[in-house]
Design a protein that fits this description.
Length: 291
């Protein structure tokens, strides 16, 4: 799939990486960006974009982009669609990289012309680091990439975005918006909450020698605790129901582990370890088959 003009709203880690991957794959002849001036200057200086997408600053001029990629926090994507939804040319394909899908897809359906085709998306790739200076053309290589395939999605647009996803090295996973948000709450959003909670627990009982003794296990479990609240605020707001349900499920498991430890029921705890380990072995086997 080839496009004459790719416009990227939000030229940070994800948007910048998508631009680099698209450039390497020859997906677009021209790549423009829309963001804060300092981010755009940096992106242009390091060759991530060719220029600024000025149409989004003019209420009277539609963008000439035939593919638009929205890469920003969920709230910023929703706001952009509401404010600029009339600035896409007929036939344009708009897709996003937002971390939750129900709210974004709902607003896209309301804000965009029937002649503009929206395909919700979410690459399961990223980093606690932010900014276009960390953009990596290989960021999506081997990553799962959720695509919303129902709710009136245009089949030709879906086919085009699916091909783009494969071209940048990712694996498309077709889901409804509700399925995405339910699954993401358990394999992405809850891990963030647990990482934050563990770091908080240690911070509040951080006696002398604690950090000196901390090793790779602690670092791996708390890596996500450095994530920006400015990103997670929107995720928590737009997926509160599913995150709350996933946390309830996890808290129940933690309480079961605590009960086994407290009672000395090591046979029960051993079974929990085996069940958890079995899941991770299945996960590794699955990843090895898809890499």
């Amino acid at each position: 799939m080839h496009f004459k003009h790719l416009a990227i709203m939000g030229v940070g880690l994800i948007g910048g990486s998508f631009a680099l991957a698209a450039r390497r794959a020859g997906i677009a002849e021209r790549i423009t960006g829309w963001d804060r001036k300092e981010a755009l200057d940096k992106a242009r200086d390091i060759g991530v974009i060719d220029g600024v997408e000025e149409a989004f600053d003019s209420p009277d001029r539609a963008s000439e982009a035939d593919l638009v990629y929205l890469a920003a926090p969920v709230g910023a994507i929703v706001s952009f669609l509401r404010k600029h939804g009339n600035l896409f040319k007929p036939g344009a394909i708009v897709t996003d990289a937002g971390s939750t899908k129900r709210e974004i897809c709902r607003v896209a359906n309301e804000a965009l012309s029937p002649e503009v085709f929206f395909v919700g998306g979410h690459p399961m790739a990223g980093s606690e680091r932010t900014g276009v200076e960390f953009a990596d053309e290989n960021l999506f290589q081997g990553a799962a990439y959720a695509l919303v395939t129902k709710d009136g999605v245009n089949s030709d647009a879906l086919r085009a975005v699916t091909q783009v996803v494969r071209t940048i090295g990712a694996t498309p996973i077709n889901l409804t918006a509700g399925e995405h948000d339910r699954i993401a709450a358990r394999i992405s959003h809850t891990p963030q909450m647990l990482s934050t909670a563990l770091a908080l627990a240690v911070a509040r009982k951080c006696e002398a020698g604690t950090l000196a003794l901390a090793g790779s296990g602690f670092a791996e479990m708390t890596r996500l605790a450095e994530s920006r609240w400015s990103v997670w605020e929107d995720i928590c707001r737009t997926n509160a129901d599913e995150i709350s349900a996933a946390l309830d499920e996890t808290i129940a498991e933690i309480e079961a582990v605590r009960a086994a430890v407290s009672s000395g029921d090591l046979a029960d705890l051993s079974e929990m370890f085996e069940t958890a380990g079995s899941l991770m072995r299945r996960y590794r086997d699955f990843r090895s088959q898809t890499d």
